[in-house]
Amino acid sequence: MIHKQFLIALFLLITSIKAFTQNEIIKPRIIVTSDGEIDDECSMVRFLLYANEWDIEGIITSSSQYHWQGHKWAGDDWIDPYLEAYEKVYPNLIKHKKDYPTPDYLKSITFLGNVKAEGEMDLITPGSQQIVKVLLDESDNNPIWVQAWGGTNTLARALKTIEENHPDKMESVAKKLRFFFIWEQDNTYQSYIKPHWGKYNIQTIICDQFWAIAYQWDKIMPQDKIDYFRNHWMKSNILENHGPLYSLYEAYKGGGDKEGFIAGPIKMKGDFRSEGDSPAFIYTINTGLRSLESPDYGGWGGRYVNIRENTWLDPVPETNYNYPEGRWYTKTAWGRNYMRNVYPENQDLMNSYFKPITRWADALQNDFAARADWCIKPYEEANHPPVVKLKNKLNITAKLGDKISLNAKGTFDPDGDKLKYRWWQYEEADTYNGVVSINNASSKKASLVIPSDVKNGKTIHIICEVSDNGSPQLTRYQRIIITISN
Ligand SMILES: [Ca+2]
Ligand SMILES: [Ca+2]
Ligand SMILES: [Ca+2]
């Protein structure tokens, strides 16, 4: 006979282990909508290489203000070659991570959405129907991230179908929805989604920081990160000899760009081209940075601040900046307008605006390079990221003057690589308006003392950053949030 107390203890043990390990977190559910621009096609390669990180429930072609059927259109079936190439590398990918979805599964959830014109949301399309089906499925009520790499029109059509046919379900559907838009690339968020669904206060991130890795990366990327986007790095790590999926990845071709963006004076043939939409899915990769918990925590996909209701936009580094009331897009977004009208002036301001993305750019590119190897190499010959586990809690409540011990015991590398530790304060993400000094910040065990001037309720965010010595060097994290309660 098992004692009730034993069961309770066992339960507490299991739940505490769960709280300490990022790997046990269930995969984010995601739906992608994309307008098939050349840089979406680059993003699609990276996306498929991370397909094991999520439950992908829809890959849907949509239109945008830039692309629609008959206007700079990549074709209704532009995703097919990418899925075919994924099918070819899949047998090797699963040697590295068993949980890549099968090519047949990905094909079964890939659909054409609303593509006839910019902002078209009258037609019920296979893409809009897939979104409806996923959102109305009550067997899974975990959050679902809907990403717009183009317009929001197919999403808007799906929501309108739900409003028309199942108005009683709107609230429960809204509860699980999370939006991540790369700008508002048509007007349907303003004209339909906000007026009809605004009352449910759906968390909505609208990103402009993406410029850091879009067509003008060469002007934005800091000097210590720019080599990861240069042709010599791209050639050996991404473009050549990495199998059929990476061979579809398009580099910069030289002499300006299809989309009319003029390259900077130093951009060369074979350089990185553009992946403006990638932050939408990069944001949902579980790196240990806990970015899904709140958009202002920040992670590989950037950091966002709450502007109004549950709308999160890019933090603009100007005091008294007034965010526009309507669309956040090419005409209004700060970064786009900085690049168009102000660059090359005030580059300190530019650097701080794009830092939420550029600060991780080396780790991000190295990670992409490792997965290039996963397409062609056996497990033993490729690198895999460290798994960061901490002995201390991830959420700590502390008082002024408390000594906090930080301990990364339990962290390991699946390849047995040597690990390098770095503990640092993510000052922009925490609400303490000061700097904490960390003792032994480059050891497995570190500590800090809560400064005497932290106000009650404020937070200190500490990142445990762990890099291996494999090739390419890979990095993972764990974030600790200390809340002051006196
Ligand atoms: Ca796009
Ligand atoms: Ca490794
Ligand atoms: Ca701070």
UniProtKB/TrEMBL annotation:
Q: What's a Pfam family in this record?
A: Sde182_NH-like
Which is an annotated GO molecular function term of this record?
A: hydrolase activity, hydrolyzing N-glycosyl compounds
Domain Cellulose-binding Sde182 nucleoside hydrolase-like as annotated: residue spans: 29-304
Outline the extent of the Cellulose-binding Sde182 C-terminal domain. 403-484
Q: Which domain of life is it from?
A: Bacteria
The protein depicted here goes by the name DUF1593 domain-containing protein
Its taxonomic path starts at:
Bacteria, Pseudomonadati, Bacteroidota, Flavobacteriia, Flavobacteriales
